[in-house]
Amino acid sequence: MKRLLISTAIAGLMGGTALAEVRIGVLVPDSGPAGLFGPSARQAAALAAEDINAAGGINGEPVELIFADVGVPPAQAVQAVQRLWRSDGVQGFVGMHDSAVRAAITGQLRGQLPYVYTAVYEGGECATGTYVTGETPAQQLAPVIPWLAENEGVSRWYLIGNDYNWPRDTNAAAQEIIAASGGTVVGEEYVPLGASDFDASLGRIRSSGADAVLVTLVGGDSVGFNIAYSAFGLDQQALRLGTLIEENTLAGIGSANANRLFASMGYFAGIDSDAARDYAARLGATFGSDAAQPNGMGESIYDGLMLLAALSNAAGSLDAAAVAAVADGTAFSSPRGEAVLDGNHVAQTIFLADGSSGAFEVVTRFDSVPSGVTCP
Amino acid sequence: MSSDALVLFALNATWQIAALALLALGLGLVFGLLRIMNMAHGDFVMLGAYAPVLTAQWGLPPLAAIPVCLLMVGLTALIVERLVIRHLYARMFDSLLATWALSILMREGAELAFGPQFRNVPLPFEGVTQIGTVGYPSYRLLVIGLVAAGFLALWLWYRRSLTGLKLRAMVDNPTLAEGAGINTARLSAGAFVAGCLLAGLAGLLLAPTLSVYPGMGLDALIRSFFTLIVGGLGTLEGLAVGAAVIGGLQAGLSAYLSQTAGYLGVLILAILFLWRRPDGLYRHR
């Protein structure tokens, strides 16, 4: 309705000429292992478009979103990007997907269009014209590990993750942060993706004498690990910290298996702020029974679109060079709070939440946490 | 190595073997009796695992999950037998393709019906049983006991009962069995549904220890398949031996080297068996 009013108002001002629209490509995983986040990502995009248009659109023109499924192998994802760019006239991209797809997209765009990447990731992206809102390991761990040392008294960390670059890079960052906070790493282990048996790992965690476990397993692996972890009573010995345990994963783990399970991310459905409560309420009001469980992965698309709109409004256009010239220092707000672009990454608020009750309750927050990524 | 670690390892290996035997039973039964490699086997496991999710959603007591599981899986299997399997007996490769398609259909259907998200099935009872100084999840011990008892009962039934006799007659010579007045069509349908029901029950029993989501069947299928390759297709004894070798090897390598070594070991063993001993350890008479 709001959008219609604005559209009519603008059309009136322009003397009834056809309305120009700014087309933005939104890249979400509808299929594949991250397909779980497709619905929440699309809904986040819809709310962001509503808010951007209500605030006057992008440089005065209403925004139109064009979606593509990137829960597919990189070669296919690139084809979708090409189609949106060449046939649909998309002027900028916002994407939430894995790093392999990101690398393929930056290689394809070569900085010719602004592109905002929003997923939690391992850090280090410096491609021209690429802006990152996703949480980096430095953001998720640098404030949190010292906090847990001080408030939960933990210092002996066991690191377990799936065997690919995100867990390995996260643990490399964790090693330094743990050492700097006076703790020690008592074990580090990687299991193949799709693992279903964690008994041997749990035995090693028990005998390592760890009092904290950093979990960088993903999806079903994380669920299976955390269920077995509690079945063996290891929750008494060591707390768990996950950097990709969001609301869906926690629901799979179940409240009975979530004692002393912490998660560190830029968004939780239970953030105690007007913006976050408003966001959750609007999801319900807009999508009714189809409203997906809000979570940090899906919601990140909202942040990405807000950043792209802010960049474009500051630059006066979506021209990649114009955007790059004004990018540093661009601020935007979202259900997460306030964020500022520092280089091509954002300094943002990080929340530490406790899942013991079966729903994440934020225990503390850290504002303006730097990404730890500096590009040449 | 301390005696505690040894006890824990023995328990973990036993659990692995029991879970594998339970998962592979339905697949082995359908292949042994009907020569149909049911690629949708894992999806019947998935369907069974959703039974407790649904009963909890409907506000029914936990035990109602058993009839819900049997009904849901049984009806699906019956329909599938009528529409697809019945026309493909003795056509192994066609049945493999058809059930693979069925697997995709069931996975997507489950995503539509239940949603893509992870579900949690709480343990029917919590707790850790002390065995010496080692604590082990009580529910796992119960499942190990149930699997052992179930296998023994099934073995006795197959050897001693009239239906068992008819089944063996059908496997050995379908034409002759039919000539002797055995209704092989009905017997085959019954065997397929029974195999799927066993898969469903495996899903139901293992649900509290797994991540429950529409795609969970693939892992169950692959692990069952390895068990049958090593054990040999078509006998209960072979299935038990296969589960013991695969489960034991994976548990051992995972404990002393790494998870990756465990998976690698199982894969290499499966390839070796397919290559050098396609009949498995326990050759069908």
Distance between the termini of chain A: 45 Å
SS content category of chain B: mainly alpha
- What is the ordering of alpha helices and beta strands of chain B? HHHHEEHHHHHHH
CATH topology of the largest domain in chain A, which one? Rossmann fold
Number of helix segments of chain A? Answer: 13
Rg from Cα of chain A: 21 Å
Globular, elongated, flat, extended or rod-shaped: what is the shape of chain B?
globular
Under CATH at level 1, the class of the largest domain in chain A stands as Alpha Beta
Work out the count of structural domains of chain A. 2
Low-confidence stretches of chain A: 7-18
Task: Please summarize the sheet with the most strands of chain B.
Answer: 2 strands, antiparallel
Membrane topology (chain B): Multi-pass membrane protein
Family (chain B): Belongs to the binding-protein-dependent transport system permease family. LivHM subfamily.
Transmembrane segments (chain B): 6-34, 64-85, 139-158, 191-213, 225-249, 255-275
Pfam family, one (chain B): BPD_transp_2
Which helices and strands appear, and what pairs or packs with what?
The complex is a heterodimer of chains A (376) and B (285).
Chain A: H1 2-13, E1 22-28, H2 38-54, E2 63-69, H3 74-87, E3 92-95, H4 99-109, E4 115-117, E5 130-132, H5 137-141, H6 144-151, E6 156-162, H7 165-180, E7 184-191, H8 199-208, E8 212-216, H9 219-231, E9 239-242, H10 247-253, E10 261-265, H11 274-287, H12 296-315, H13 320-326, E11 331-334, E12 337-342, E13 345-354, E14 361-369
Parallel strand pairs in A: 1-2, 1-3, 3-4, 4-5, 6-7, 6-8, 8-9, 9-10
Antiparallel strand pairs in A: 10-13, 11-12, 12-13, 13-14
Chain B: H1 3-34, H2 41-57, H3 65-83, H4 92-114, E1 128-131, E2 134-137, H5 138-160, H6 162-172, H7 174-179, H8 184-206, H9 217-231, H10 236-256, H11 259-276
Antiparallel strand pairs in B: 1-2
Helix pairs in contact in B: 1-5, 1-8, 1-9, 1-10, 2-3, 2-4, 2-8, 2-9, 3-8, 5-6, 9-10, 10-11
